[in-house]
Design brief:
Largest sheet: 9 strands, mixed
CATH architecture of the largest domain: 3-Layer(aba) Sandwich
Number of strands: 27
Helix content: 25-40%
Distance between the termini: 37 Å
CATH topology of the largest domain: Aminopeptidase
Structural class: alpha+beta
Strand content: 15-25%
Radius of gyration: 26 Å
Length: about 625
C-alpha cells in the first residue's frame, strides 16, 4: 500500500516547476519563503490533514524540493517517504440505529446526522431501556450538587445537558466565568458509566445553542481518542429532548435550565412512559501518511554523527476537534502552524546543500507528519524507524510556528538540554542585529522536539509566539512576517554551523519538565488536581502508556516513570486516556491516590503499586 494517490499530470508539473523556481538566484530569501508558505497554506491543500490529497501534495512538494536540492533520500528505497499508519478516528457502522418508543407504543426511527449523532469517545453499546433526566449530570462535593441523588440510573438511558449552569455568572461557585471539570463531557459520561447507565442522550445547553442561533450536532469524532469510555453516547437536538419531556414535571429544556441556573438545585426525574432502543457501534479508520526525509552526508572523523533539523508540515484540515472553533467546518490553512516552520526547514536545507564542501557531521532534514494528532511522525521515527541510529544523533533543531516574529523577538526552547546550547545561542544573540532571543530551558512539550529530548537527544525549538489565529481558519499566508522568517533562517544556518564546528557532541542534560511555558490550560484552573504525566497518544495499549513525567511533579515524587503503563487509578480500572483523565478529574488537590502500573520490558512487565499525593494544577500544567 502506498501513501500517495496519483496526482493529475498538470498538477505535478506545476508543483515541480514551482519547486524548481523557488530556490533560484532570481528570488530573494523573503520571496522564497513567501512562495513556500503560499503553496503549503493554499486553499487547494485544504489544511494538509493526514490522509488527505492536500496532505499528500504537501509531502510531494517537500520531496521534490529535497530532490532538486540534491539531498539524498533518507529511506533506502529512494522515495524520501517514511510511511506510517495513523488512526484518524472511528466511523459509525451502518447497522447503528436509535428508536424512540412513546408512551402509546409508537416507534420513531431517528435519522443519524439529522436527529442524532453517536460520539466515538463513548463507544459501542446496545440498549432497550426507559429514559431518565439527570440535569447537567453533576456530582460535586464543593459546591454540594448531586444530580444522581434521587435516581437509580442503572440499566437506563440518561438524558443530560452539556456544559454546566451559571456559566455567565462570575460569582458561580462552580468556577465563576470559567468552565469547571463538571462541564467536561468525560466527567459527565464517567458519572453515568460508574452508575451503570445503559446509554446517554446528550443535549446542548441553551447558551451553546443561542450562541449562533443553531442547534448543531457534534461530529462523531468531537473528542478524538484511541478507545472509548465504555457507554454509548448520542447527541440529540433540543427539539427532540423537548418532545421527550413534554407533559412531564421536567418542563422544556429552556425552562429546566433556567430553574437550575437560579438555585443550582437538581431537577432530575424519570421521563415516564418513554423508552429508547438502539445499537451504536464503530469501526476504526486508519490512513497512511509519511515523514519526508532528506540527508546531506558528512565528511571527516565526525561524519557518522547526525544533526537532525525538523518541522511538521501537517495541519488540521477542515477544523474539527483540534480547531479553536470546533463547530466550524472551514479550511484551516495553517500558514504559521506550520507552513512557516516547513519553509524555514527548506531554506536551511537549501543553504547547506548549495555549499561545495560536505558538512563535518551528517545533516538529516525531516518534515514530520501527524504532529497535530499527538507528535505521531516524530514518535514513529524515534521509536520504530530512525533512519540513522539515535545514539549517533547528537542534536535536534525544530521549527514550529516561526512566522509571526514580533518586535524582532524569537523564543528558543530547550536551551538547557545540552551543555553547549546556551553559550552558542548567547554568542549568536550578541551578533544578531535582526533578532533578540529569549532562551527557555525546556518548555512547550507539544511539538516534535520533545520526542527527541525524551530520547535523550539535546533538542531546541524555535517559536515566534502565539496569536489569535492559532488553529483558526484565519491563519493565512498574508499574515506572515516574511522578513522575520528570513532572520529565523539566518539564525538557523548560523546555529547549525556552530553545532557542526563543535569538536565533541553536545552533552545531553535532563531538565525539569515543569517549565511555566509548557503544557496546556485545562478547565478548573488551580482547583483541578495535577499529577504531572505526559500520556503517549500514539500507542494503543490496554491502559495509559506514559511518554514522560515532569520533574518534581507529584508523579515524579510518587515514583512514576516514562514507560510505565497506568492500569488503575484510585481503585478505578484504566484502559485508555479518556478514563484516566476522568479519574484524575474526579479527585482534588491533596488527595492521596494509589496508582497501579505495569513496568518492565515487553513480555516481562510487573504490576507495581505507587502512592501519589495529587498537587494543584497551574494554568500551564498538563495532566
Amino acid at each position: 500500500m502506498t501513501f500517495f494517490r496519483r496526482m493529475p499530470l498538470g498538477l505535478i508539473l506545476s508543483a515541480v516547476c514551482l519547486a524548481n523556481s523557488l530556490h533560484g538566484a532570481e528570488l530573494s530569501i523573503d520571496d522564497r519563503l513567501r512562495q513556500d508558505v503560499e503553496f503549503l497554506a493554499a486553499d487547494k491543500l485544504e489544511g494538509r490533514d493526514v490522509g488527505t490529497p492536500g496532505g499528500a501534495q504537501a509531502a510531494e512538494f517537500i520531496r521534490d524540493r529535497f530532490r532538486s536540492l540534491g539531498l539524498v533520500s533518507g529511506p533506502a528505497d529512494g522515495s524520501y517517504f517514511q510511511n506510517f499508519p495513523v488512526r484518524i478516528g472511528s466511523k459509525v457502522t451502518d447497522d447503528s440505529f436509535l428508536e424512540l418508543i412513546a408512551p402509546d407504543g409508537t416507534t420513531t426511527r431517528l435519522v443519524r446526522g439529522e436527529d442524532f449523532e453517536p460520539l466515538v469517545f463513548g463507544g459501542d453499546g446496545e440498549f432497550d431501556a426507559p429514559i431518565v433526566f439527570v440535569g447537567y449530570g453533576i456530582k460535586s462535593d464543593d459546591p454540594p450538587i448531586d444530580d444522581f441523588a434521587t435516581l437509580d440510573i442503572e440499566g437506563k438511558v440518561v438524558l443530560l445537558i452539556r456544559r454546566e449552569p451559571q456559566i455567565d455568572d462570575p460569582a458561580s461557585p462552580l468556577a465563576g466565568n470559567e468552565l469547571s471539570r463538571h462541564a467536561e463531557l468525560e466527567t459527565k459520561v464517567r458519572n453515568c458509566w460508574e452508575r451503570k447507565a445503559a446509554g446517554i442522550l446528550l443535549v446542548s445547553d441553551h447558551h451553546t445553542i443561542t450562541k449562533d442561533g443553531k442547534d448543531n450536532l457534534l461530529s462523531s469524532n468531537y473528542i478524538p481518542g484511541n478507545s472509548s469510555v465504555g457507554v454509548a453516547v448520542c447527541h440529540i437536538h433540543e427539539s427532540l429532548a423537548d418532545r421527550l419531556v413534554a407533559g412531564s414535571a421536567v418542563g422544556t429544556m429552556a425552562e429546566v435550565q433556567k430553574k437550575i441556573d437560579g438555585d443550582l438545585k437538581p431537577q432530575s426525574a424519570p421521563i415516564e412512559g418513554w423508552k429508547v432502543k438502539g445499537k451504536i457501534s464503530f469501526v476504526r479508520v486508519q490512513v497512511e501518511t509519511a515523514n519526508v526525509v532528506g540527508m546531506i552526508e558528512g565528511e571527516g572523523p565526525l561524519a557518522a554523527e547526525t544533526i537532525l533539523v525538523g518541522a511538521h508540515y501537517d495541519h488540521i484540515g477542515m477544523g474539527g476537534p483540534n480547531s479553536r472553533d470546533p463547530g466550524l467546518r472551514a479550511i484551516h490553512n495553517g500558514a504559521d502552524d506550520n507552513a512557516s516552520g516547513t519553509a524555514v526547514l527548506l531554506e536551511t536545507a537549501r543553504r547547506f546543500a548549495s555549499r561545495p564542501a560536505k558538512p563535518t557531521r551528517r545533516l538529516v532534514f525531516i518534515a514530520f507528519s501527524g504532529e497535530e494528532r499527538g507528535l505521531l511522525g516524530s514518535a514513529y521515527y524515534a521509536k520504530k524507524g530512525p533512519i540513522v541510529p539515535l545514539e549517533k544523533t547528537v542534536a535536534m533543531v525544530n521549527f514550529d510556528m516561526v512566522g509571526r516574529v514580533k518586535d524582532n523577538r524569537l523564543i528558543i526552547y530547550g536551551t538547557k538540554t545540552a551543555d553547549a546550547f546556551e553559550p552558542i545561542l548567547t554568542k549568536l544573540d550578541e551578533k544578531a542585529d535582526s533578532l533578540a532571543l529569549k532562551l527557555v530551558p525546556l518548555g512547550v512539550p507539544a511539538s516534535d522536539h520533545i520526542t527527541f529530548y525524551r530520547s535523550k537527544i539535546p533538542s531546541l525549538h524555535f517559536f515566534s509566539g502565539t496569536h489569535a489565529d492559532y488553529h483558526m481558519p484565519t491563519d493565512d499566508a498574508d499574515r506572515i512576517n516574511y522578513p522575520g522568517m528570513t532572520s529565523v533562517a539566518d539564525l538557523s544556518e548560523a546555529l547549525v554551523d556552530e553545532l557542526l564546528s563543535l569538536p565533541q557532541a553536545p552533552a545531553y542534560v535532563k531538565v525539569e519538565e515543569n517549565d511555566p511555558h509548557g503544557g496546556m490550560q485545562l478547565p478548573g484552573g488551580k482547583n483541578t488536581a495535577y499529577l504531572g504525566t505526559s500520556p503517549d497518544y500514539s500507542d494503543e495499549v490496554d491502559g495509559v502508556l506514559l511518554n514522560g513525567v515532569r520533574g518534581g511533579s507529584p508523579a515524579d515524587q510518587g515514583g512514576l516513570k516514562a514507560g510505565d503503563i497506568i492500569v488503575e487509578f484510585g481503585g478505578e480500572t484504566i484502559k485508555n486516556v479518556q478514563q484516566y483523565t476522568s479519574a484524575l478529574y474526579a479527585h482534588k488537590p491533596g488527595d492521596k491516590v494509589t496508582v497501579i502500573v505495569l513496568r518492565g520490558e515487553d513480555g516481562a512487565k510487573e504490576r507495581q503499586s505507587l502512592d501519589v499525593t495529587l498537587g494543584t494544577r497551574g494554568k500551564s500544567e498538563s495532566e
